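Reopening this ticket.

The earlier resolution said the output was attached, but the attachment link was broken on my side. Pasting everything inline this time so it's all in one place.
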Amino acid sequence: MGVLTAVPNSEGVELLKKELFEKITKFALADENGEIYFTDTVHSIYFDSDGVLTVSALIPKEEHFTVWNKWVKLLSDEDKVIADIETPAIQFVKGVGGEQTVKLTVGGKAGEVVFKKDEYITLGEMNGLYISAIEALTTKVFQLENKLIKKGILDV
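Inline output:
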C-alpha cells in the first residue's frame, strides 16, 4: 500500500498540541460502517526527513480478515481516536497486509524517533529517516572524489 495522509479530527488536533504524538500507541482497522475489527500496537512513530510525524503500522499478512477495510484509525493509549484515515476498500486476506505508513500534519524535529516497538527498521522507516541522509553523503563523497581526481591525487 502507499502512504496515507491523515488529517486529525478536532479532538485529535487538541491532543496533538499537547504532544500526544508520544501517546499514540495503537491503530485499528475498521470496515465501511466504521466498526473496528482489528487493533494492534503501532510499530513506530517518528518525524521523517521533512519533519512530518509518521506512524508505521504493521498489518499482519498471516491473518485472513473476511470484512472489507475502509478505515485506519490511530488511537491513543486510552483508545481515543486521534485520526480517521479513509482507505480504498480492501480486504486483508491471508498474504495481503504489510507496513502501512501514515503521515500526520504535525511538525517536529526531522529524524526524531518518538516510539519504537521493535529493534528492526521497516522499509518505510528506512526511506523516511535514512535514505535522504545517505543520498546527501553519497553526493558529497562523489564531489570530493571528483575534485581529488582533477587535482591528480586519485587515479581513475
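Reporter confirms the inline version is readable. The first strand starts at residue 4 and ends at 6. Helices lie at 10-17, 123-150.
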